[in-house]
Design goal:
Blueprint (H helix, E strand, L loop, with lengths): L6 H18 L1 H7 L4 E6 L2 E6 L2 H10 L1 H8 L8 E6 L39 E2 L8 E4 L18 H15 L8 E4 L6 H15 L5 E5 H13 L3 H9 L3 E5 L6 H16 L3 E6 L11 H8 L2 E4 L5 H19 L5 H10 L4 H18 L5 H7 L1 H5 L8 H12 L3 H4 L6 H17 L4 H7 L5 H17 L1 H15 L1
Parallel strand pairs: 2-3, 5-7, 6-9, 6-10, 7-8, 8-9
Antiparallel strand pairs: 1-2, 4-5
Amino acid sequence: MSDSPSQEQRELWTRVRARLKAAMGEDVFTSWFARLELEEIVDDLVHLSAPTRFLCSWVQSNYADRIVETFRNDLPEIGRLTVSMRVNGQARTRIAPVVETPSEAPAASPSTAPVPAQTPAMPRLVRDGAKNGDALSGSAIDPRMTFETFVAGGANEMAFGVARQIANAAINNAVTFNPVYIHSTVGLGKSHLLNAIAHAVSEADPSKNIVYLTADHFMYHFINAVQRQSALGFKEWLRRVDLLLIDDMQFLQGKSATEFGHTLGALLTGAKQVVVAADAPPRDLEMLDDRVKSRLSGGLVVPISTFDMDLRRAIVQRRADQATARFGMHFPVPVLDYIARAVISHGRDLDGAVNRLVAANQLTGELITVPLAEKTLADLIRSRDAKRVRIEDILKAVSRHYKVPRNELLSARRSRDVVRPRQIAMYLAKALTSRSLPEIGRRFGGRDHTTVLHSVRKVEQMIKDDIELGQEIELLKRMLEE
C-alpha cells in the first residue's frame, strides 16, 4: 500500500469537502472539517486524520454518519469512518485491508500476521484490540453501544430487557423469542440495542458466528454477490450464522427484500436467533411480502415509545458524567434539568446537546451555564414544536389525496395520473424530512437519487407556474405537519 492516498482518492476527498462546506456552511466547516486530512480508503472504511485528540473525538462522535453519507454519493460501498490524530504531521499506522478467512480454516495463533489475499468473498470486521478470532461479520459495530452505556427507562425498558434476554440465551446456545422485531422513530436506541447484543455475545463466546448488517449493507453485499456470480455462497454464509441482526429494515428494497425473506425462513427453521430493527411495525413495510410480514409479526414485536422527562434526564446525566470523566468540566444540575426539559426530540439530540456544551467549554473556556445552553442549543429547542414527518406519512397522505394506491406510487408505472402524485410525494419527502436523496429514492421503489432530484425540481417549477397546484401542495404540507 502506498504512503499517501491515490490521486483518485484525493480528488474524491476534494469533492466531499466541497459538499460538506455547501451543506454545513462556512463557519461549521471551518470549525470542524477544514483541518481534516484523508489518509486512505480501505474496502468500506474511510481513514481521516486531525491535529488534536479533541477534534478526532468530536468529528467521530458528531459527524461520522454525515461524512460517510457524503462519501457514499461517489462510493456506495463506504460504511465506516475512523479519525486518528496526527503527530508531527504523521497519522498513526495505516489500516491494512481486512482479510476474510474461510470458516473451515483453523484459527491462526495470535502471533500470526494476516496474509494479503484477493478480494474477500464476504465482509468481515475485526474490532480494534480484538483477540484473533473475535470478529463480527458485516457492518461496523460501534464500540460505545453496549448494555452498560444504554440508559433504560419506562419508554424502552421492555426492549432493553428483551435484548438482554436474547444475548444471555445466545451465549447459552438457546433461543427465546424468535424473531424479535424492535421498532421506533429515529434516535430512540434501536441500533444501540442491536450493537449491544452483538457485543455481549461476542465477548462471552468469540466462537459465535454473529452477523450485524444494516439494510444498506445487506443490499450491497447481495447485489455484489449476484454480480460476481457468488450469490449461492452469500446465501450459505448468512444461513450458517448463530445470530443475525438486521438494522434499518425499512430501507430494504427489491430482490434483496426477497432474499431476506428466504434467509429469515431458513434461520427460523434452523432455530437460529434473528433480531430486526426498523422505524415502523412489520405491517407497514410494503417492500416485504405478506409471508415475511407474518413471520416477523409472529415473533416478538417490541415498540420503543417517545422518551418521558425522567428518561431524558437520566440520559443527560449519564452523558454529562461521561464528559466530566473525560474532559473534567462541571455540569450544574440546572443545566442538566434545562436540557432534559427543552430537548424533547430523541436520544441523539440529547447526546448532541451535551456534546455541544462540551465543545463550547473546550473551545472558548466559557463555564457551562443555562444561558450558554440556551444560546448553544437554540436550534434543537426550536425544533421541539415541529412534528417529525416520516416518508410513510407522506405516502399515505398523497395516496389518499390523489386517490392513487400506495403501491402504485412505488411502482414503475409512468402514466400521468401516477407520475405527478409520485413526484409530489418525493418533493414533500425532500421538503419535510431529513432524508437524503438516495434514501428517498430507496423508499420510492429503489429509484436513483437523480430521479428524486428531477422530481423535486419539476414540482418546484410546477408550483411557480401553477398557483392552484402550489396551494394544493401547501395544504398537503400543513396536513402532514399538524
